[in-house]
Amino acid sequence: MNNLPYTISINGVDNVGKTTQMRLLPSHYTISKISRFRVENTRIDELHQQGLLQRWWWESTSEDFVYSMVDTLAHRYWNATIELDSKLVLFDRGVAMFEAISVAVIATKRPDHDLDRARMAFCTILEESKLHLPKETFAILLTHGESPIESLQITLSREKEILDERYRLYQVLLQSELQRQERDGVYQHIIRISATSSIGNVQNELREVIFKYTTNSLFLPMLHQLETVYIISGLSNSGKSSIADNFCSHYGTAHAFRARIVYFNDLISEKLGRSMYSLADKEQARELYHELERFSTAHYWLKIIILESMHSHLVTKWLKVWLGDKLRVVYVDTVESLRLNRGLVMPEVIASKDTLKAARGVGLIRFDADLVLDNNDSLANTMNNLLNFDRKGKLKRSGQLAVQ
Questions:
Q1: In angstroms, rounded to a whole number, what is the distance separating the alpha carbons of residues 43 and 53?
Q2: 3-state DSSP assignment of residue 220
Q3: Rounded Cα–Cα distance for residues 363 and 354 (Å)
Q4: How far apart are CA 72 and CA 117, in angstroms?
Q5: Is 227 exposed, middle or buried (0-12, 13-18, 19+ CB in 10 A)?
Q6: Which of 95, 105, 118, 147 has the fewest Cβ atoms nearer than 10 Å?
């Protein structure tokens, strides 16, 4: 038993961001992240394959529901803690949340919707059937909203499907049961997500908690070694390469690394065994983020990474959502006549490249950029403007510059 891995579950009300936070946690061979609720060769998986899961969820008996949930939970924990060769296992939803879900479903089906009686029924089923819930090392609860009513409103507002009264009732009961668990000290740590909490802020708080209890340095803050990641975007022949090269030279290779985005995309594709571009934009952004984290850990002396020729607006947008001010997006703005004169290729080739970049949303990056860098004058003037922007960013992060 001493060889079993350390297990941590991330729990919380629906739509609080559990899965998003789980996927942003470090990606490493010593860590297993278990997000799937369904487990192969279990009844719940079979029902899903047959398209009957939702119907069964609401029409099954309490006994059948609890048996199936505990069976799935047992298989999930067995697969993760015995079959996988990991020192740490992270679960998206843990034992306590499975219990809260079961109690809420039983209460939803009861005419009186009484949670206390539903909880007693759940415990009776476990006892009479001699079912045992797995043990986990550490459980974290994520909450949102300043009150139970606001929490429920946030959850329901983020649902994409049309909601019926039964589902609304289930959510009321589920949140009430999770709040009862919180009061009873079921969870070892609570993370309260406010209206101003960014995804990156929550991720770093979650990492801080896990680091405190595991002392695993992989859970230090996101890209903690780096001061800044710069994205340099723009149309063809706008001067991106010259600017990125000069910017890197300003800091020196002992502190800065510059690469075209394709460098990291190729590393990711090699790991995946398929093209990174086959992924959805959000998945591309997440894979790029994890590759940057691995790279910065291996090259711990670096303070700045400069990514040149990023053209995907949605990938850039997701990275910005997660990394906040640590990511600085610069769009190099150069008039067409200058771009054509600087090129060593025919104008129609430049136009074709611009069309491809526009399709990926490079024009939208311009509107969302932290800096639209005018490159219609001398390179010296352009670099002076970029370095001034960089200095102001450092002062702002250090608190020496008031936010305008």
A1: 9
A2: coil
A3: 10
A4: 24
A5: middle
A6: 147
Element (H, E) at 3: none
Distances (CA, A) of 44 to 55, 124, 296, 371: 12, 22, 41, 50
* Pair of tokens at residue 389: 């922007």
Q: Which of 101, 113, 115, 120 is nearest to 14 (CA)?
A: 101
C-alpha distance from residue 101 to each of 134, 154, 172, 180, 312 (Å) = 16, 18, 11, 13, 39
> φ, ψ for residue 398 (rounded to 5)?
-85, -5
The backbone region for 309, taken as left when phi is positive above 0, alpha when psi lies in -120 to 50, beta otherwise, is left
Spell out the per-residue pLDDT of the chain, length 404, in tens. 446 789 999 999 999 999 999 999 998 888 988 877 767 668 888 888 899 998 999 999 999 999 999 988 888 888 877 766 778 999 999 999 999 999 999 999 999 999 999 999 999 999 999 988 988 999 999 999 999 899 999 999 998 887 889 999 999 999 999 999 999 999 999 999 998 999 999 999 999 999 999 999 999 999 999 999 999 999 998 999 999 999 999 999 999 999 999 999 999 999 999 999 999 999 999 999 999 999 999 999 999 999 999 999 999 999 999 999 999 999 999 998 888 887 667 788 888 888 889 889 999 999 999 999 999 999 999 999 999 999 988 877 666 544 44
The tokens for 56 are 């069964």
Amino acid at 232: I
> What residue has token string 């065994």?
273
92, 83 in Cβ contact below 8 A? no
Give Cα 276 to chain centroid, integer Å.
17
Record the tokens describing residue 88, joined without a space.
């740490």
Q: Please provide the size of the chain in residues.
A: 404
Provide the token pair at 309: 């020729």
Q: Is the pTM of this model over 0.85?
A: yes
Give the C-alpha separation, 233 to 228, whole Å: 16
Separation between Cα atoms, residue 123 and residue 101, nearest integer Å? 13
SS3 content of the chain, % helix, strand, coil (to 5): 55, 15, 30
CA nearest neighbour of 372 among 404, 329, 343 = 329
